[in-house]
Design brief:
The complex is a heterodimer of chains A (292) and B (292). The mean pLDDT of chain A is 94. In chain A, helix 1 runs parallel beside helix 2. Chain A is of the alpha/beta class and 292 residues long. Helix content of chain A is 37%, strand content 20%. The radius of gyration of chain A is 20 Å and the shape is globular. Chain A has a nine-stranded mixed beta sheet with strand order 3-2-1-4-9-6-10-12-13, sandwiched between helices. A four-stranded mixed beta sheet of chain A has the order 5-11-7-8. The longest helix of chain A has 15 residues. By secondary structure, chain B is of the alpha/beta class. In chain B, 37% of the residues lie in helices and 18% in strands. Chain B has a seven-stranded mixed beta sheet, with helices on both faces. In chain B, helix 2 links the parallel strand 2 and strand 3. The model of chain B has no long low-confidence stretch (mean pLDDT 94). Classes of the chains: A alpha/beta (292), B alpha/beta (292). Chains A and B meet through helix 4 and strand 8 of A and helix 4 and strand 8 of B.
Chain lengths: 292, 292
Amino acid sequence: MNYPKISIVTPSFNQGNFLEKTIISITSQNYPNLEYIVMDGGSSDNSVEIIKKYSDKIKFWVSEKDNGMYHAIQRGFENSSGEIMAYLNSDDIYFPEALHVVAEIFQSFPEISWLTSNNTCIDEAGRIVQNYTLPPWSKFKIYKKKYKWIQQESTFWRRNLWEKAGSELNLNLKLAADFDLWLRFFRYEKLYTFRGILGGFRYRKANQKSLEGGEAYTRELESLIEKEALNAQDNFILKKILNYENIIFRLPLIRNSSFLKKSYINLFNYPPVVEFSREAYKFRLSPPDIRI
Amino acid sequence: MEFPKISIVTPSYNQAKYLEETIISVLSQNYPNLEYIVIDGGSTDGSVEIIKKYETKLSYWVTEKDQGMYHAIQKGFNKSRGEIMGWINSDDLYHRNSLFTAAGIFTDLPEINWIQGNPTVIDEMGRTVNCRPLQSRSKFQFYLRDFVHTKDFIQQESTFWRRSLWEKAGSKFNLSYRYAADFDLWINFFRYEKLYVTPALIGGFRIRRSDQASLDHFSTYLEEAVGSLNNYPLSHEEEKHLSKIKAFRKTMLRIPVFRNSKSLIRYHESLYNYPPAINFNRQKQKFEFIKS
């Protein structure tokens, strides 16, 4: 098997409690073509000592003041060259072999430009406390504000998609710059879902942006959706979808017609799902099983 | 956090290729109150050397001819004393920290006597390649033989129970079943307790290319499973309730206008008498029931 170069960036700032677990979850995979970059924002806890401890496995690292997490990630990506890209925050983790799975899926399916997986959460003690299978993603769901949640920790993309989307995070956004990137990715490519697990989001008691800033994050994200200018074709499709929901599916006699349901589902243009075939013993694309 | 004693048994027979990974998945968690027992059936392939390598961390191990896998597990449980019990076959894996997860659930929710995590599948490389959507469990689904069509079984690798339940059920497997003695145990358990499912990840079932009982003997497994239902006659009330569900399925669910009605769907669900779902409370870092 070929191992495409994978670039992972970890932004770090005073999270010495969890940082080592994050780093180990990446370096312990022994992925043979890994470009791991750690961007520390000038931590005053033990973060820098931890980074130094693993510096032989880190391609590039720095510790200096920056303008926040997304700025750190942006600078990390600017120093990266891998064909496949992702970032992992300094309290989250990848599951064992995740990089090998990602590599094999991107190698097997050239049509996939970005990929996510089941949503998985770990707690402060590292227990895997939640795992959810979500239906496949369609940008039209996002445009309808059904956005909960594309799990950032489990999302990987090809560099050419990153470049098409402008090679940058929107640093004017303090909270939802991740979602802003997904919105731009959706302009070009479908998001595929893998039915296994890749990354885990760490649920913490306190001191976590997603907890304290939860509502502010959602507000910022929704305003991004509202501002997203759709092209004429997408706009037409979205209107059709809303037409089904607001009119056709309210008519008692016809709302259960399987023909109508099917044509409604077709409008979303869902990508196939990435599964593992026991018979063939490799990944395969399967038609998504969508129900309404 | 409390650490109740957990007894884990691994039955082993000539699976040296995977055995070490299985053992490591148990021991590397460093659960402080673990009783780990390995019962080997007289392997000749290097399995015994692997077991010896870890013998200082095992509470008990033996290698001697036995009458198959379930006999080995039974011998192991006979040697065990832990309050929480489970077994992991010599090619399957526990997810990281799953013993702590199980301990947490049983400690946080004392009314629970039997749990199953979200079922996952692992490939030969140890990659988690599939997570099945979490399904609520009810004895009535099994009495109705739904598994014959759905092929959906309780995932043994993700299952733990309290010793008190094991004792109520007679402290033994039905060793007349070569393949489905696990299924028989669950049906036996269902006489006393509900099975609670959790979206946490506990164990993974390893799918292999070949030489796997579950692949080569599936039809025998199914036959044994169906047969084992006869071992546990239902009470009069259960029979009555079962007839009610059957009648509902035969009539209402076949009528198009009704089968999509939300209130009927809710009523249908209520017939199965599912236990409450388990949620992870982020602020408390504890498991709790979802209030319905």
